[in-house]
Amino acid sequence: MLDVIVIGAGPAGVLAALRAADLGARTALITRDEFGGMAANDGPVPVRTLAHAARLIREARQLSLYGIAVSEPSLDYTRLLARVREVVNDVRKHSALREQIDSLGVTVYEQTGSARFVDPHTIEAESGLRLQAEKIIICTGGASRRLSVSGFELTSTHSDAWGLTSVPPSMLVIGGGATGAQVASIFNAFGSRVQLFQAGPRILPAEDEDVSAAVANAFRGSGIVVREDFGEIESFEKTPSGVRMIFSKDGARDSAEAALAVVAVGWLANSAGLSLATAGVETDHRGFVRVDAYLRTSAPHIFAAGDITGRLMLVPQAIQDGFVAASNAVRGPMITLGDQASPIGSFTDPEYAQVGLTEAKARETHDVVAAVVRFDSTTRTIIDGRTTGFCKLITDRATYKILGCHVVGERAVEITQVAAIAIAAGMRVDDLAQVPLSFPTYAGILGRVAASAARQLNLKVIWQAHQAEMD
Ligand SMILES: Cc1cc2nc3c(=O)[nH]c(=O)nc-3n(C[C@H](O)[C@H](O)[C@H](O)COP(=O)(O)OP(=O)(O)OC[C@H]3O[C@@H](n4cnc5c(N)ncnc54)[C@H](O)[C@@H]3O)c2cc1C
């Protein structure tokens, strides 16, 4: 019998296996598909490669502004997909984690097909592989939610982008969360006529309201039809050139059609095929595995980490989860995940990102100051011709600590990393205002916005008043 079996080789599973082996446990990592999981093979890495291509197209369109003459960019989608495959392979090849896993003696079983519990300590895979262990860590991630409406099989998910042979002339994107917004933005840049449908009142509902509004406006400005609060889907049906979505609102029926309909309406747990009940592992109503602060499931010898637990579904969180779950599985429940500053963002056009509380959430529990600096007032954005966007900083009036930062515009995701460090360090806003950030940079906007907040709080900021004119 092994000490630890980890199921799923995404970021959570890889880290869990690595940590367990590092602590001296005899460990096996078993995964349905390839090493790396969704992050490497179907999520961030390939999608962000497409987003980079979209960025190159918009940068190419700027060349004439700087006196550089080239012809209008045109996209060879087949070549782009080949590049995506190159990137995915390269990332996999250079994964230091793979080397470490191998050098620590973890036995990795890839392409095993789905694994499931046959009893609380035994795992069996479709390939016939059967393993037993004292402790088991479930890291099987999630999958796109399917809708139970007629004709749903005519729709696609973001993963189907890899199977397309050309850019569809038109596209319906259903779901205005992070994945839907990313798909809409990329394919709009590639030349598809995109309609983005959001059932709720605003796209990007997890973002600060000003961010949602700014991204929706910018999307509309770039030609995407954004339909918020569109009603309820009744069905999908085939048309000679693609697919039609029938929907209704307040009794009125409407429809929209396109060559392709991509549905991104949420993320469900990959738990259905695991036979969790056999092992006494409880799930919530969406199938996510219930865990305590130690990432222990309702079966004390079984742990879970990453997307399968249904919390913040991001790579850095999956990695931390994997570490915590394996540490506790091998040494006993000792470490928990604290409250953390977790930056979240997306590489749409325009980019957006956040860390900490939104303004509305912060106002529920704190007396706050919200300072905003617009991108059209900073030197670097003017130099680069990227003046759409803003940076908003939320500060607690009582402690002067930074509670949240929300950015729309070029390099929003990178700017927010710096804000995350300030929040994690518990910095006061006037201290942030006095850090001499490089000029002219995108991150420099943080100095400006911090100085603005400090002024509203009547805090002395010795030199930022002058720096503010520069940045
Ligand atoms: C389009 C898209 C873009 C994203 N972009 C970002 C981003 O920019 N930044 C970011 O931080 N996050 C991003 N994410 C989220 C990120 O990919 C996930 O949070 C992360 O991959 C979760 O890691 P995980 O290890 O929990 O699961 P996964 O990466 O999903 O890995 C799960 C593994 O389990 C295996 N598995 C599943 N069921 C079984 C079974 N029964 N038996 C054996 N093996 C099984 C799967 O084959 C897979 O290898 C994105 C997600 C999507 C969909």
The small-molecule ligands in this entry are: flavin-adenine dinucleotide
* Gross morphology: globular
β-strand amount:
15-25%
Mean pLDDT: 94
Number of strands: 21
Evaluate the radius of gyration: 24 Å
Biggest sheet details: 7 strands, mixed
Which class of secondary structure composition applies to the elements?
A: alpha/beta
Distance between the termini: 62 Å
Q: What is the overall number of helices?
A: 14
What is the percent of helical residues? Answer: 25-40%
Low-confidence stretches: none
Describe the overall structure:
Strands 1, 2, 3, 4, 5, 6 and 16 form a seven-stranded mixed beta sheet that branches. Strands 17-18-21-20-19 form a five-stranded antiparallel beta sheet, with helices on both faces. The chain contains 14 helices and 21 strands. Helix 1 (11-22) packs parallel to helix 8 and helix 3 crosses helix 6 (178-189). The protein has helices at 11-22, 37-41, 44-62, 77-93, 96-103, 178-189, 209-221, 315-331, 359-365, 379-384, 412-424, 429-433, 445-456, 464-470; strands at residues 2-7, 27-30, 107-109, 115-119, 122-125, 130-138, 142-144, 170-174, 193-198, 225-228, 232-239, 242-249, 252-258, 260-263, 267-269, 302-304, 344-346, 352-356, 368-374, 390-396, 402-408. By secondary structure, the chain is α/β, with parallel strands linked by helices. The chain starts with a strand and ends with a helix. Bound molecules: flavin-adenine dinucleotide.
Q: How do the helices and strands line up, and which of them pair or pack?
A:
Layout: E1 2-7, H1 11-22, E2 27-30, H2 37-41, H3 44-62, H4 77-93, H5 96-103, E3 107-109, E4 115-119, E5 122-125, E6 130-138, E7 142-144, E8 170-174, H6 178-189, E9 193-198, H7 209-221, E10 225-228, E11 232-239, E12 242-249, E13 252-258, E14 260-263, E15 267-269, E16 302-304, H8 315-331, E17 344-346, E18 352-356, H9 359-365, E19 368-374, H10 379-384, E20 390-396, E21 402-408, H11 412-424, H12 429-433, H13 445-456, H14 464-470
Parallel strand pairs: 1-2, 1-6, 2-3, 6-16, 8-9, 8-14, 9-10
Antiparallel strand pairs: 4-5, 5-6, 7-15, 11-12, 12-13, 17-18, 18-21, 19-20, 20-21
The protein binds flavin-adenine dinucleotide.
